[in-house]
Amino acid sequence: MTAILQELVSLLELEKLEDNLFRGPSRDIGTNRVFGGQVLGQAIKAAQYTVEENRNIHSLHAYFLREGDHDFPIIYEVDRSRDGKSFSARRVVAVQHGRPIFTLSASFQLDEDGLEYGIKMPDVPAPDEITSVREYETRHMGTLPEKFQRLLTLSAPFDLKPVDFDRPLDTDTASPCRHFWIKTVDELPGERQLHRSILAYVSDYGLLTTSLVPHGLHFLDTNLIMASIDHAMWFHRPFRMDQWLLYSCEAISTGNSRGLARGYFFQQDGTLIASTSQEGLIRRLTAG
Questions:
Q1: SS3 state of residue 73
Q2: Which of 8, 98, 102, 194 would disulfide-bridge 157, Cβ 3.0–4.6 Å?
């Protein structure tokens, strides 16, 4: 495993302090706060540590309450709400400097057979037909804005290929959708919980910014303040993060300085493996 991917895996490994209490490290990605996907992935790991190994997370609902401080670790307190015959429910509170910064409610389930259906994957070019973020970085070395450099730091453990990458600052308002092919840069262990934590980590990337597309705006615009408010996710089927997944994001609504977007993850064969949605703050700064 490459060092940069091992760093991400280690970031999602928590230290057990006592029953139901865990501590996770923080990572500086060049912003003044912890990346929301980090807290999301770590909270899932904290909850999973308290659940039987044969039960896997299938849904989560989370709220981002305060900015996380990347210079200090985060404490995760797990409430074992219920353990039934097939399902387990957990509530996690992430605490830093004595105050909650994040809450998570999650449900875990034993694998079962049942009815099968999934929406159709969008018709987009295959990943081997698309330019990667790293190729774009090499092509425009030394001319990229600071916000784009932070994106490169965030996406370093992944091979990321945005569809229509030849227009990275696209302001086309015709379609409120964005699509990304993504996988880890190296092979991962087979542990299903790890792959789901990493998918949750990366699901916080690119979702809210899709709400800018209908307005002809881009996350690199300097007069925007954006922050996640809540995040929901559903895991439908097993998958691997070290194989290509299409992340398809769609803007649903913007108003009252908030944006709502939803996303779907597909395997390369078209199988739907997860769904997500997120609402966040989108505030435009006034001139002067």
A1: coil
A2: 8
180-193 pLDDT, tens digit each: 999 999 999 988 99
Per-residue burial over 47-64, b = 16 or more CB atoms within 10 Å of its CB, e = otherwise? bbbbbeeebbbbbbebeb
Is 228 designated active site? yes
Looking only at the bridges linking them, the beta strands covering 245-255 and 177-184 are antiparallel
Q: Could you give the C-alpha distances from 129 to 12, 162, 181, in angstroms and in order?
A: 32, 11, 11
Active site residue 204: yes
What predicted TM-score, i.e. pTM, was given to this entire model? Answer: 0.91
**Helix locations, the chain, DSSP H:** 3-11, 36-48, 133-139, 146-155, 192-203
Enumerate residue ranges in the chain where pLDDT < 50. Answer: 167-170, 288
Return the ∠ at Cα 140 (arms to 137 and 145), rounded to 5°: 80
Catalytic residue status for 6: no
Where do the DSSP E strands lie in 97-214? 99-110, 158-162, 177-184
- At 98-143, the pLDDT tens digits run 999 999 999 999 999 999 999 999 999 999 999 887 776 665 555 5
Using the 8-state DSSP alphabet, how is residue 262 labeled?
E
- Please tell me the class of the 3-111+125-284 domain: mainly beta
Among the listed residues 38, 42, 228, 275, the single catalytic one is: 228
